[in-house]
Design a protein that fits this description.
The complex is a heterodimer of chains A (253) and B (355). Chain A has ten helices and ten strands. Chain A is an alpha/beta fold. In chain B, helix 3 packs across helix 13. A two-stranded antiparallel sheet of chain B has the order 1-4. Classes of the chains: A alpha/beta (253), B mainly alpha (355).
Chain lengths: 253, 355
């Protein structure tokens, strides 16, 4: 579904990505791991269109999207969350999630001014869809009217996932969804991610430091180190790869 | 959330006037506006008309600055475009029957404003904050410069200004201030209502998203290009409508009425009233127009109507007004709207707790 080939990206002298190539298969959970500064977030930014790679291509559903703007990629069905939460902090949880519905809605300027009629019907339908498919699903109904700033970190992460799910994405990209969470919150989040894949059939690309979680839920893993892709394969293959053990697992053990 | 209003359906939960106090406040205000001409004197009507005209423009600036986070110091120019387009087009379309002229001229004036707004908004895709403010300021200088040119004087009247037509709505001549009050009030209320509606839909939410975190907006599929320009178009259109009413309200318009002072007044009213809030512009316009009047009146009392004394008190009035603005900004940085929020909140909880 998503295919990255020979991606290069650098910031001045820093080579953030040097020839990264992998495929994300439809309906599966693919993990990206690597030590701090390995280039995982940079990879996400290149895939979602914030950084233009100096070489290489990004393909989605077979078509080349390397030069496409981020909002156009979202319209194709790509959603993502950010490592350091990028919610709209002044808004309520509900408004944040509603924004996820933007591309699926049709209301134009003039019917928005009138509101009553088509715009209202669409808004109520959006509300119903969000309540049933996202808010109930992620168990956040008790906080829907809260402003983001009042929520603890773990719940903010969950709301960001909710906003992405409101987009009904085909590819969901999660940048460290459990970073900074305690054990219980991590287990909850892992369960939600698996449920998203199983219930909605969403394809997931996941960056994570938590090795246990990656090994548990991913069917394919890509390993980066200093911008280079040092391994790719199933969790078993990757965890037995000597280069990986040296660069990553060895350091952690 | 602690309140006594359990919502039965999503429709009920999505209502704007979601409790008795808000409903009573809004319906009370509307009733007051409708009855106002029955008991108001000419001076009160004049002030109300001025407020209505300014309000429509401030609501426009609110869409752009308050909700989309794009600062403009040049929106007085769109009021000028609306006003001048109304006069120039009225003089050009003499073939049309008088009674339908405003129905053609005003939409054209609003559309011209909106189009110029889109052009002026183009830099917003590249620059933000102060740089954008300066770009809009420059654009407004160009507009004012063009209006004053001798070359266009046959149409615009140049620096000495031009007489304006009396609006005729399907045979009804609005040749008194009291009649203009009706037109201005209806349009001002519709503008507020339309804006309130806008922010209940995806379009308005997209503006707020761009203001709060533009890259997050993009990741949700919101085109910055499209929505920033749309915001500029809406705000310029409202200012254009305000200008059209300005032209109809006064017997004559002059270029100097639309210069930097006006642009700053729009921004000041918005900040004092409360940015990004529906009622912010209402409170702001009230402060910006009524407070100076109150100061003038009380100074008049203090000097006992002595004209010689008033020569000296005139600058004092400006200083006092400036101090009042500064006081409000320090005390309520989020505007007057913040004060009314508190009152409404404690009214909702009454009689259970104070908040
Ligand atoms: N906008 C930027 N400008 C300059 N350098 C950058 C930028 N973004 C990333 N880098 C550099 O690129 C390299 C890769 O960073 P990246 O954030 O992609 O790593 P990461 O794998 O996500 O790390 P972490 O595990 O800490 O999140 C780092 O050396 C980083 O300093
Ligand atoms: Mg990272």
């Amino acid at each position: 579904m998503l295919s990255v080939s020979d991606l290069h990206l650098s910031f001045g002298g820093i080579k953030a990505l040097q020839g990264v190539s992998f495929d994300v298969r439809e309906g599966e959970i693919t993990g990206v791991i690597g030590p701090n500064g390995a280039g995982k977030t940079s990879l996400f930014n290149a895939i979602s269109g914030f950084y233009a790679p100096s070489e290489g291509t990004v393909r989605f559903d077979g078509s080349d999207i390397t030069g496409l703007a981020p909002d156009k990629r979202a319209q194709l069905g790509m959603a993502r969350t950010f490592q350091n939460i990028a919610l709209f902090r002044g808004m309520t949880v509900l408004d944040n999630i509603k924004l996820g519905g933007h591309t699926r809605l049709k209301t134009g300027l003039f019917s928005a001014f009138r509101y009553f009629g088509a715009a209202r019907a669409e808004e109520l339908e959006l509300r119903r869809d969000i309540e049933e498919r996202v808010i109930d699903f992620l168990e956040i109904d008790h906080i829907r009217k809260y402003p983001i700033t009042m929520l603890p970190y773990g719940l903010q992460k969950r709301v960001e996932l909710a906003r992405a799910l409101a987009m009904k994405p085909r590819l969901l990209m999660l940048d460290e969804p459990v970073a900074g969470m305690n054990r219980e919150e991590t287990a909850d989040m892992a369960r939600f991610i698996l449920d998203v894949q199983e219930q909605f059939g969403t394809t997931i690309l996941l960056v994570e430091h938590d090795m246990h979680m990656v090994m548990d839920i991913c069917s394919q893993i890509v390993v980066l180190n200093f911008g280079q892709q040092i391994a790719a394969g199933t969790p078993d293959e990757v965890s037995q790869n000597p280069a990986v053990i040296e660069a990553y697992l060895g350091a952690a053990a | 959330m602690i309140n006594g209003n359990l919502k039965a359906s999503y429709g009920a939960d999505e209502r704007v006037l979601n409790n008795r106090n808000k409903q009573m406040f809004v319906y009370g205000c509307l009733l007051l506006l409708a009855l106002f001409p029955l008991f108001a004197d000419d001076y009160a009507i004049l002030m109300a008309c001025k407020m209505g005209i300014l309000l429509i423009a401030v609501v426009g600036v609110n869409v752009l600055t308050g909700y989309t986070g794009l600062v403009s110091l040049g929106h007085g120019a769109f009021v000028a475009i609306g006003a001048y387009a109304t006069v120039v087009l009225s003089n050009l379309f003499t073939a049309l029957p008088e009674g339908v002229l405003p129905f053609v001229v005003v939409p054209c004036a609003v559309a011209i404003s909106a189009l110029v707004g889109i052009v002026v908004g183009l830099p917003s895709l590249r620059v933000k904050g102060l740089y954008l403010a300066v770009a809009t300021l420059a654009a407004s200088f160009i507009v004012n410069f063009l209006i004053e040119q001798e070359l266009f004087a046959p149409w615009t009247g140049g620096v000495v200004g031009i007489n304006t037509p009396v609006p005729n709505l399907l045979g009804w001549e609005l040749d008194t201030k009291r009649e203009m009050y009706g037109l201005i009030t209806v349009l001002a209320v519709l503008t507020l209502l339309g804006t309130q509606n806008l922010f209940r839909t995806r379009v308005g939410r997209a503006f707020i998203a761009i203001r709060d975190r533009d890259y997050s907006a993009e990741i949700l599929g919101i085109s910055l290009l499209r929505y920033k320009l749309m915001s500029f178009a809406i705000s310029a259109a409202f200012c254009g409508l305000s200008g059209a009413l300005f032209a109809y309200f006064y017997a004559r318009i002059l270029p100097e009425q639309f210069e930097l002072d006006l642009s700053l007044e729009l921004v000041a009213a918005l900040i004092v009233g409360g940015m990004g809030r529906t009622m912010g512009p209402v409170f702001g316009v009230f402060i910006v127009l009524i407070v100076p009047e109150l100061i003038k009146i009380s100074m008049g009392f203090a000097t006992g109507g002595d004209l010689e004394m008033q020569r000296y008190t005139a600058p004092v009035q400006e200083i006092v007004f400036g101090l009042i603005l500064v006081f409000f900004l320090l005390k309520e940085p989020l505007g007057i709207n913040q004060i009314t929020d508190r009152i409404l909140r404690s009214a909702n909880r009454w009689p259970f707790a104070r908040g």
